[in-house]
User: Fold this.
Amino acid sequence: MTLISDKLARFTTMLRIRMVEEMIAARYDEQEMRCPVHLSIGQEAIAAGVCAAFTRSDYLFSTHRSHAHYLAKGGDLPGLIAEIYGRNTGCVRGRGGSMHLCDLDVGILATMPIVGSTLPIATGAAFGSKLLGDQRVTVVFFGDGTTEEGVFSESLNFAALQQLPIVFICENNLYSVYSPLEVRQPARDRVALAAAHGITAALGDGDDVEAIFSLTENAVARARNGGGPSFLEFATYRWREHCGPHYDNDIGYRSEAEFLAWQQRDPLARTERELLASGELCAATLSDIKASLQDEIETAFTAAREAPFPDESTLFTDLFVPTELCVQAA
Amino acid sequence: MNVNNVEAVRATLHDALTRDERIVILGEDVGARGNVFLITKDFLQEFGPQRIVDTPLSESAIIGVAVGMAMDGLRPIAEIQFADFIFPAFNQIVGEAAKTRYRSNGDYTCPLVIRTPYGGGVRGALSHSISIEALFYHVPGLKIVAPAFPADVRGLLNAAIADPDPILFLEHKKTYRLARTDIADEAYTIPIGQADIKRSGTDLTVVSYGYFVHLALEAAAKLSSEDISVEVIDLRSIRPMDKTTILQSLSKTHRLLIIHEDHAFGGIGAEIAAMVASEALFELDAPIRRLCGPDVPAMGYAHALEDAYMISSEQMATAMREMVQF
Assistant:
């Protein structure tokens, strides 16, 4: 039985992601955030629904489009914004920018923009959890394009073979940069593909945060009980351009009509409507939540813009642990 | 213990597995078979399938999984069955393992040893003979170790296992059963990045590593009867480079010959030559010379082709003579 407060929490997570991403988009052209940004607007339900099924100490890996996952898992907001501004207070102290997030306090081990690169590493983290018996479950987010990479198969095979506590989350937003799914893959069923690796697999509606949560909760419970890996694919759509703050329906690779059809399905508006209709949320509370989030977000942006850039002297830090220590450690 | 290189690797891995429960060996055929050179024979029975992991045939996943395990606090020792098979894992090694510590500002590290047999002269032909070191030499964040003698194998493998950063540990196939020596039983370490003068001399410095150190020593021994005194430096660690040992030797000999099996162009020798040119040019009494594998894509199979690729101790001796007579 899902508690009302949990549903509200998932809605708030979605709303917070949307508002953060909108703020990044609104301020990107100020030319202060200079790293590439891959916004998750339109895809918030998957991050919110999936991450709600994991605990703080579970591990998360993600891609270049990871702000939503980072926030939903509990990643530090000021650390994210400062990172995008390239500041020393960023979650990796300005070294990585938007695509290389990390927050060990909440199990966010790494986000990596090299497509597919995280899959075997996440599989290894899950393998480590199994060997250490630490009860952690790993979640790894990736897009439809990743299912075309060789390591997709290698990782699923390994995870199934070792019955690892990992949940593979495929966010199918239909495009890999500018290339639509149909020019990249035959009309194949990726759920069946995962299942063929011996992995429990299912397809879900990427706009339905509660259904996403429910599917993931089952997968996490199975993984934590030694039942092995799962693969979940969710249909979704990114509203903005692949990389950057703008819309790009005018450049020809996808149609305005397609975008509008998906926008009609807006997972955030849908959840808001449902909560208002059921009485689990009222207009006044919604207004309070929005005001509170707006305040939190503005504070994070202000802090980021006022924070110092990393010192040049950090260029060579953390390349290696000093060799003397290596020898002593023996 | 009296061991060859295969036995030195085996004994050192065995000690490490016994000493540290965080150590997990993974790779193709490392379990039931015990590795193609039988280095890990019977380890599976002794340590179990959670510590000795037979992996699928997937090099990218072997290294990627090891990186993830290392992030978890385990100490994976990943094996790539032959160095020639490492390329599917290139992204995981160069793109991820080498960056792990840097990308997280030291929040976590990647204590990973990648062991792989490399090198030619074993009739392995195009795809079981290559040297891979230069391809990884360029990558900050990786250390590359290539010991050639049992004592160095043991000390450097222990150091690599203890090291909190990723290390490519290269084992030349031709040295596996080349020589047998007495080495200490205890788990001593040799600092990574420290070369070793395998033979002292005054007329010429030879810098090499791997199998060719053995041949260079043969050549140097031959030349001593001609009153030519050759100093042979075994790098042992390819990167970090031990500049100090090389420069100190040159301040005595004033001549430098670099010998390696890997291709000349853009190779290890080029970097050493550049270092010496910029830091000790006026110490030199002769041009720096490199005696290296030819710049062809791979080692041929037929004896004539393999011999033409590998450098003999006679060829080394000739080059040494010419250098001293310059």
